[in-house]
Amino acid sequence: MRAFLAVIAVYLTVALALPLATMVSKSFEVRTFPYDSIHIARLAEDGSEEVRTLGDWAADAGFAEAVAQAGRSSAIPAVRLFPGWDSPDSTVVAYRVLNRSGEAGTAEFDRKQLPLDEWVEIPRDQIRSVVFRAGTARSVANYVRYVTTPALFNSVGNSLLVAILTTAFTVTLAFGFAYALTRTQMPFKGAFKTIGLVPILVPSLLPGIGLVYLFGNQGLLRDMLMGQSIYGPIGIVMASVFFTFPHALIIITVALSISDARLYEAATVLRAPAHRVFWTVTLPGARYGLISAAFVVFTLTITDFGVPKVIGGQYNVLAVDIYKQVVGQQNFEMGAVVSIVLLIPAVLAFVVDRFATRRQVALLSSRAVPYMPKPNARLDWTMFGYCAVVSALILGILATCQFAALVTFWPYNLELTLRHYNFDLADGGGWKSYRNSLTLALWTAFVGTGVIFLCAYVVERVRAFDSGRAAVQFLAMMPMAIPGMVLGLSYIFFFNSPANPLNVIYGTMAILVISTITHFYTVAHLTAVTALKQMDPEFESVSASLKQPVTRVFARVTIPVCTPAILDIWIYLFVNAMTTVSAVVFLYSPLTTLASVAVLNMDDAGQLPAAAAMGMMIFYTNLVMRVVHLGVGRLVQRRTQAWRIGS
Amino acid sequence: MTTTRKPFRLLAGAALLLGLSEAAHAATELTVYTAIEADQLAAYAEKFNAAHPDIRINWVRDSTGIITAKLLAEKDNPQADVIWGLAATSLMLMKAEGMLEPYAPKGLDKLNPRFRDPANPPEWVGMDVWAAAICFNTVEAGKKGLPLPKSWADLTDPVYRGAIVMPNPNSSGTGFLDVSSWLQLFGEEGGWEYMDKLHENIGVYTHSGSAPCRMAGAGEYPIGISFEYRAARTKADGAPIEIVIPEEGVGWDMEAAAIVRGTPNLEAAQTLIDWAISEDAMRMYNEGYAIVAVDGIAKPLEGLPANFTEMLIDNDFEFAAMNRARILEEWQKRYDGKSQPK
Lengths: 647, 342
Fold this sequence. Notes:
The complex is a heterodimer.
Chain A: H1 2-26, E1 29-32, E2 38-44, E3 49-53, H2 54-60, H3 66-72, E4 75-77, E5 92-99, E6 105-109, E7 112-113, E8 119-123, E9 130-138, H4 141-148, H5 150-183, H6 189-197, H7 205-215, H8 233-257, H9 261-269, H10 274-285, H11 287-303, H12 306-311, H13 318-328, H14 332-360, H15 377-406, E10 407-409, E11 413-416, H16 430-461, H17 466-477, H18 484-495, H19 509-519, H20 521-533, H21 538-545, H22 550-579, H23 595-604, H24 608-640
Antiparallel strand pairs in A: 1-9, 2-3, 2-5, 4-9, 5-8, 6-7, 6-9, 10-11
Helix pairs in contact in A: 1-17, 1-18, 5-8, 5-11, 5-15, 7-8, 7-15, 7-24, 8-11, 11-14, 13-14, 14-18, 15-24, 16-17, 16-19, 16-20, 16-22, 16-23, 20-22, 22-24, 23-24
Chain B: H1 2-25, E1 28-34, H2 38-51, E2 55-61, H3 64-73, E3 82-87, H4 88-96, E4 100-101, E5 125-137, H5 138-144, E6 164-167, H6 173-185, H7 187-201, E7 202-206, H8 211-217, E8 223-227, H9 228-236, E9 241-244, E10 252-260, H10 266-276, H11 279-286, H12 317-322, H13 324-335
Helix pairs in contact in B: 6-7
């Protein structure tokens, strides 16, 4: 068991803690020229000599300060430092160069580093072969630059604004929906519940594409925006509400369904009017669920990259900044700085949420009586109407995407065609990307379920090594607060380093599987822990007293008891692996392109119909897997869960 | 137990055989970095493989700016074997960084001298010319009463406010050739003044050079600043667009090919470069581009004006390549992220 705990701890350290640490250190790295430690002398015909530092020459030649110049290019050719460099200066006989710098940049002659602390004479016509190379130094310059660059720093405000608005809308909408599901007798509850969860099955890029078709300049409903553009905060908030809705719905539904009926009876006896019951009983009862939902939605929105990428227009937010810095400009250090800025709100939200959830546990006592809603025609039909509208919006966005994917040439030729499904003619890697995504999802689901369940088992059921278990538990909770972009970027830093023996997995399917499992670790872990908590702790002690190996109880009792949870973890990992973009967008290679990333690249190249088509392929795949999961779940329920009946 | 396993073993054996036979077909794999349009890639690989079935190409495709940035970032640990289809200005940068392997491909003498690195042996060879073009959606322009622009200067008319899309030069090679051509046409100061005014009319800056024309084709924005291949293709797809070649002349760049220094697959890389300037390849380039690097092969393209060749500006590649970083930084400072939604 000790060995097993060690393995899990090593996994979480390598897949999470070390990459993040590498990234933090990278954010303090700057590229810089050794302006002060290289001296260059120019010998004139008359024997006179002009000696100055590289910095002096560079300043005269119009090269910016050492760090800024290194940001533009990693090398300065020596010739360009001297006036009239394109027509050689005949009064100069030779140059001499003194190199006093090793680490933070060097001087090279004919591709070889000049020796340290030694004047080297270079004939005039060979000065063209001298090049000064930038090196690496540690400083807070990146952070200073971040704060002083308005184009970057504005994103902080933009991100917060968008996340706050989305949180307000989503939580309100989801509360109404959850209320209808738990506190009324409206018809078609099952259907509404299913539809409310549908957005989980699509990549977050898809609602953005749907909104472009609905509200873009050629959109079907563009007049509803009254002249406002969908490309910007309006679009980001609308699409974010769509994709965060199910997450809020699940949490609030749970919070509302555990209320105590005795409070309502008391209210009725006291003749409290309905609205008063709502404000004094219903809302306070769901308080912690609402707080939790708000923080989850806030975190999801601020860390999401798909929505603002597709529909944000010129409205910059943090997650897109990371992408622009890393993919667009290959400025990894600045990407790391933005990542750390993005971590702050995410970690804060996470901490506050944990705090809120912990307090919620005490709310229900064992004597509580579950609340059963009574029929109330007016309320039931009002809520039915409300849910119907929300469901129509959700399905409408998907239907629009599907329609757009089948139209020959939007909006001028609405004949139906399958030509946009010929992904091999579009950016993003063609049908191979789709197959790769299936491979990734299956590996992630199988390997991830195994790893996560075993880890949860060790943390929950083993009664020893308390400090080790606590450490693993802490690591297991961490991924919740780490945005996908940040995780992906930290993987580049950690795994792409040639010094790292794990470097071999870089560019393979393995790194995609590991990053995806790690990215979605926490929720799966919590699911497993919850299931394991239902089991009486005596099982292990009894088996120990019967001298049975731990593995036997595990296989004969633990796994069968937890099968429903294991299946839930499996499908959770599968669905998320199909839709994920943010963590893998930095890590895929030419052989491992993914469907979700293809949606992004197609959208980038303006191939919107193909992007919609690929997004819908992901949706249908997830839908089919969900249905299969449901079928298998029923079967398992009948065969292994008989013990639950009557308990 | 053994009996039930047998079919699996057979299957495994078959898979192994299949794998081996596939391996026999593809003796060498080349990682090729490219900015060639995605809808052409498969055809390029297919044509090449028809002549050389033993070399398999793994494409890494993105916009010119991104491929350039990626190559520069990987300089110390190159991942690419060959660059096939990237702006010549970008390859000049790579050359200055010492990242390219000099090689004189077969048939080099047939190449128009304008379309190759002057060094001997050359470090890069040209393929074709790609040039700026404007896609103008006649249907949407009709609805909004927008006149047909004839020149770059026309595009700064306030009547086009918010109606124009152009590619961001930081990620798109098309965007960069636009910017560098304006700086050459109107002078450094005049060029920035022009872009300041144009910026007022821009609806959105896109990541790829294709997107503006595709968006104009779909009527999302009536005017897209893009390039001639995408313009002709979008029109052929059925978009109601007119292709405008501004009368001041248009910026252009070469698509070019080169071998990355230090590739472990040098022989295969050389085979690919030989083929990249072959007559077969030139005919293939001509399907999308009006001007190719070997004279006497190109046929005029449908949808482009007959005098298209004369519309190309007298381009100073040295200026564009050497000032690339400075121009991009200035552009970003002026226009990127500053523009809040209107």
